[in-house]
Amino acid sequence: MNIYQHVEILVREIDSKLLIATLAAARGHEVLISDIEILEKGIKRGILTPGIFHTKSLTPGESKIERHQAIIDNGFLISSMDEEGGLVEKGYEKEAKFRFSDQSIDQASAIFGWGSEDIETLSKVYSKYSSKMYKTGSPRVDLWRSSFSDYWDISNSAPKKPFLLVISHMSHANYVTPFHNIISASRKSGKFKRDPNWFSKKFGMAAEHQLATGAFIEAIEYFSKSTIDYDIVLRPHPTENIHSWKVFLEGIPNVHVIREGSVTAWVNMSFAVMHNGCTTGLEAIVSDKPLITYLPFKQEYGNEISTDLGYKVETKEALLSTVNRLFQSLNTDSQGDSESLSSDKKKVFQKIYLDENELSAIKIIKVWESLAEKNDKLSQPNNWIKFKIFLIVMKFKGIIGRLLKKILPKTFSQVGPKKDDFKFPPLDQNDIISRINRLRHILGIKEKIDCKILSDKTILIKRI
Fold this sequence. Notes:
By secondary structure, the chain is an alpha/beta fold. It has two domains: 2-144 and 355-463, Rossmann fold; 146-349, Rossmann fold, CATH 3.40.50.2000. It is 45% helix and 14% strand. The protein has 19 helices and 14 strands. It has helices at residues 10-26, 36-44, 62-73, 93-98, 102-107, 116-125, 139-142, 171-174, 179-188, 191-194, 198-224, 242-248, 263-269, 280-286, 316-328, 338-349, 360-373, 384-407, 429-443; strands at 2-6, 30-34, 52-55, 77-81, 110-113, 133-135, 163-167, 231-235, 255-257, 272-275, 291-294, 311-313, 449-455, 458-463. The strands form two sheets. The chain has an eight-stranded mixed beta sheet with strand order 6-5-4-3-1-2-14-13, sandwiched between helices. Helix 1 packs across helix 17, helix 1 crosses helix 19 (429-443) and helix 11 packs across helix 15. The chain is globular. The mean pLDDT is 91.
């Protein structure tokens, strides 16, 4: 079976996609991981043979529905797990109506859910499609398990001292491109039509993100004036401008602004996590990592689930006291407030399904295999040499297009699609192969797996 996995934000999605790919390859399937542009063009031009096209969402924007229909018309089946997940919101009704529609669900052959809440809600709202919906849990959550602790590898940039991990989730105030790009993208995808309040909500969120950014900076400066024996690692959201944070925190001792690797590695290595409304808060709870939720002002647009977890503090003085207490407990037998942690886990597991007996990644692969049993066209071989040549030509055209834009900006300003390199930076072959080898070791996979980096955004994984 051919499996094509679409990646939007590399740092968020690559490890879970590699987990699926490694397990699928061991079962005899061929897996291609790439961005949407490469997959779409390869399918459209008939270079890639039919298979499962696994995407990160089924949001019912006009362009996405047209794209998915073209993929289906070429003999492919579509499956999806929403990478946004709606994990930090109470309930799933709004997400079900905002991120899905009858038309977008009708195009899919399988929809995988993070847990009971999203699948039950989707099955209720779109009842005639309930047979397509599977409560598998997310492969991203698979990697939060203690059994994968040896998978994570932090770079040499990690501080030598114990560190508090501070998660920034303020992209509306610090997006890598101007705020009007968020508005433009929302309008093009039809979000304003689906939710009349979306426009004003975006500005409200931007205002709160600005206030939260200032509050986090003040808190970190307050820490620096105190005597602390630990460092602080500030990790920006994948869509935030990391250079802005370096400017904001310039000159403050014991502070490191780092976004390398998956956040899971940094959660595992920290002694505690501080956040405000981020999905990483749920991950910290599942991983039994102390979580501090900093709420310096009343928020109208705060993420209701994640801001109701962990130690909730409202002032920088209380924040410092809480962090210091957690740091001091490192060398004691204290396990923290076990009753509070148990309560938090109940809230999280309303959103997240974690089967102790089987990985979510395996559940997803089994659904794909059941689909392939009814459609032998999904297992036709690909000509990977031809595809490699196609990628070289595609890269060459991209270089020419960028040169034309530079030389004749007015004439060629619209040549080629916009590149979101901050979302999908170039792949490192040695790094990817190392990750797959670690997965094979942890999973006990004896089969030989071949991994090739076909381009700076494309990985081919298959059994030898």
